[in-house]
Predict the structure.
Amino acid sequence: MNNVKIIDHPLVQHKISLLRDKTTGSKEFRELVSETAMLMCYEATRDLPLKEVEVATPMGVARTKIISGRKMAFIPILRAGQGMADGVIALVPAAKIGHVGTFRDPETHVPTLYYCKLPDDINERDAVILDPMIATGASLCVAIDELKKRKAKSIKCMCIIASPEGIEEVTQKHPDIEIYCGAIDDRLDENKYIIPGLGDAGDRMYGTK
Ligand code: URA
């Protein structure tokens, strides 16, 4: 589990508790998903390389640092991952956004890819896949497969809550991928929902059922 990083920052943990609360309504839920993603992105971008530059301040010249030419792409998995996109793009406005859509068979729970639109230059970009919930891990593996096929420069994943089963699946199939995660819960139920989790993130975000 070396490549699984739990983001234990108090603000992230506090917001996850509010997300879990079943009395939190859709508007607040959407805001919390976006804010949590923004805070997690701060950690997930900690290794961005810097270069020194000189900047003229009103008082003189400062030798200071800027991010050195890294290009990023955020890849939300539809539909719940889209809720994380606003938060991360606010921090990294130059990033491009691609989308992956998977449909989960209601009986077998096996996901099928129905949509994939990635930036043309994904091979030059550090990709971060966004999905608030890693349940079985199967959709995330489909997204990682697509990004590897398109030769993304690097791939990380950001999720708010994961199951132990999902983490196991992803780290077995893709031991090279780092996962940034707010919490790892107890287990999956028979319908592959995370227990205790927060329910269906897409439904809670968009007010559907
Ligand atoms: N997707 C969700 O939104 N919630 C879960 O618990 C599992 C998958």
